Amino acid sequence: MQQSALSSVDAIEAERFRQFIMGVTDYAIYMLSPEGVVVTWNAGAQRFKGYHPDEIIGRHFSMFYTDEDRARGRPVLALEVARTTGKFEDEGWRVRKDGSRFWASVVIDPIVDTQGELLGFAKITRDITERHEAAEQLERAREALFQSQKLEAIGKLTGGIAHDFNNLLSVIMNGLELLRMTKDPAMVARSVDTMSRAAQRGAALTQQLLAFARQQPLRQEAHDVARVIRSFEAVLRRALPDAMHLSLHMQDDLPQAMIDAPQFESAPLNLVVNARDAMNAVGQVQLALDAVTLTAHEVDRLPAGRYVRAMVKDSGTGMTPETMTRAIEPFFTTKEVGKGTGLGLSQVYGMVQQCQGALTLDSQVGEGTTVSLYFPAVAAADSSAHEERGSASAVKVLLVDDQLDVLETAISLFTHLGYDVLSADNGEQALATLRQHPGITILFSDVVMPGMNGVELGKAARAEFPDLKIVLASGYVKNTLRDQMPDVGNFELIAKPYRLSDLIKTLKAL
Fold first, then answer.
1. Largest CA distance in the chain
2. How many helices (H) and strands (E) does the chain have?
3. What is the distance between the alpha carbons of residues 343 and 210, in angstroms, rounded to a whole number?
4. CA nearest 419: which of 445, 405, 398?
5. Contact at 8 Å (CB) between 320 and 308?
6. Is residue 54 packed enough to be buried (19+ CB in 10 Å), middle (13-18) or exposed (0-12)?
7. Mean pLDDT on 440-454
8. What are the tens digits of pLDDT across the range 246-278?
9. Domain locations along the chain
10. Lowest mean pLDDT among 93-102, 138-147, 238-247, 324-333
């Protein structure tokens, strides 16, 4: 009697639960047979899928999937995953009775008896189209913001670069006008020196961009950093007005460090200029060099070892924590419009990273800023200087460039160095010249040329003349060239614009 009463209560509870499930309208809750055939159908399923129970019960649930998903076997996979793992969860497009699509969140659970035999599946589907569309709108908004930020950064870059280059071009154009108008040797010399400095500043400006992108090829060699700084100490002092003082403190017997000396020179100069701008007309700038031994990760992510540290400290206004977090961002600057591009510290950071070093900032508002640069020390530096080679007057060189102005300038430079110069303005002509003049020792070619490029010319020339020394010159960075022309790494490469000293160093290395 008691058992019969309990069975009656269970039946009532089961009916209530069934009615509850059938009455839910926000979720499609229904049962599937082990083969995936629909056996129950609640009000929620009818509401947003559009099928009356009489239309759907007895049909396979794969009809709710898109044609694409059915072709990929998604319905079968869903049941298999639910059966073998105990649950299947997914999101994707599903199809209503009228053919329209909605974005569904789906959960499928297997139902088994006490012996573990599969009885079917419980499937819950929720229409989350609005949430999905909101997420897509948010993503589009983020993408639009990202594009806006990129455009803003490009605007800052182009504005700053245009300002700086216009100044440099003005110096060069005005200098050329003076050369046309005067025959005074002193004025000619001053104009040439001024234009040369402007051109070098323009080259340094492009190197700042490339160094931040870590694409400017560095020629790292063991250098006495103290000697490098002393060699341009006068430039550092001229960067400060008379009311500001620069003091140098250099530890004796410093180990050598692996740096690219020309790139390194721009680092303390940038830091001294930043220190000048951070001080109000008067102040003190300290540049110190010492050797430090670091434990692993004591500074940034540097491994344990010995390092040469260069520190530039000013007595300026200092930086807020918010400014410090953005200080090395490209194009970020607290200077007035037209006063800087925001690339100085970024360029320093990029150069130090390429040298396997690190940059740290220490600053407080009203107490100045200290920037420290760490470079790996060389354990056993080879300080022996290279012996000067003899005259190049007996060496025959072939110059190749499709830009006639550049070619004429190169001819003048090589002739000035004492080389016997031949020239060509394309690859095919260059090969013909090599065959006609077997005494050519060096091939010096531009990389990017119409028709046969410099790499193709170099490969063809090396195949015919194995002893020929080949140097390629390009304004593109080495990493970019390597992506487009993998064989460029087989040749000596010099970056444009190159100075006479760069040219001499590269030719001597041959």
1. 129
2. 17, 16
3. 10
4. 398
5. no
6. exposed
7. 90
8. 899 999 888 999 888 777 887 888 888 888 888
9. 2-127, 134-212, 221-376, 396-509
10. 324-333
Residue 119 and residue 111 in contact, taking contact as beta carbons nearer than 8 Å = yes
Q: What is the pLDDT of residue 109?
A: 92
What does DSSP assign to residue 445?
Answer: E
CA distances from 330 to 155, 212, 271, 448 (A): 12, 8, 15, 29
Return the bridge partners of 377, or none. 257
Q: At 187, list the tokens.
A: 């004025």
Rounded to whole angstroms, how far apart are CA atoms 110 and 117? 10
Q: What is the mean pLDDT of residues 496-510?
A: 76
What are the angstrom distances between the C-alpha of 34 and each of 82, 122, 202? 11, 10, 75
Overall average pLDDT of the 75-100 stretch = 90
Rounded Cα gap, residues 385 and 505, in angstroms: 13
Q: Check whether 188 has a pLDDT greater than 80.
A: yes
Overall average pLDDT of the 292-319 stretch:
88
Fold that domain 2-127 belongs to in CATH: Beta-Lactamase (3.30.450)
Query: What CA–CA distance (Å, rounded) separates 191 from 178?
Result: 7
Q: Where are the alpha helices (DSSP H) in 287-382?
A: 321-326, 344-354
CB within 8 A of 288, min separation 6: which ones? Answer: 248, 249, 250, 309, 310, 311, 313
CATH of 396-509, one of 3.40.50.2300, 3.30.429.10, 3.30.565.60, 3.30.457.10: 3.40.50.2300
Which tens digits make up the pLDDT trace of 137-153?
888 887 777 776 666 65
Residue given tokens 């009809």 in the structure block: 63
22 has pLDDT over 60: yes
Is pLDDT above 90 for 15? no
Residue 13 CA, chain-centre distance (Å), reads 65
In whole angstroms, give the CA distance from residue 449 to residue 402.
Answer: 6
Question: How far is residue 431 from each of residues 285, 319, 398, 486, measured CA to CA in Å?
Answer: 56, 59, 10, 22
Residue whose structure tokens are 């040298």: 355
According to DSSP, residue 201 is labeled: H
At 397 the pLDDT is 93
pLDDT band at 479 (very low <50, low <70, confident <90, very high): low
Q: Between these two residues, 485 and 225, which has the higher pLDDT value?
A: 225
Question: What CATH number should be reported for the domain whose range is 221-376?
Answer: 3.30.565.10
Any idea what DSSP says for residue 299? S
* Two tokens, residue 246: 């620069």
Note the pLDDT tens digit of each residue in 109-132: 999 988 888 999 999 888 888 888
* Stretch 163-189: mean pLDDT: 79
How far is 259 from 436, CA to CA, in rounded Å?
A: 42
Q: What is the SS3 assignment for 88?
A: strand
Q: Classify residue 455 as exposed, middle or buried by CB count within 10 Å of its CB (0-12, 13-18, 19+).
A: buried
Quote the pTM value. Answer: 0.42
Cβ contact 22:103 at 8 Å: no
Cα 451 from Cα 430, distance rounded (Å): 12
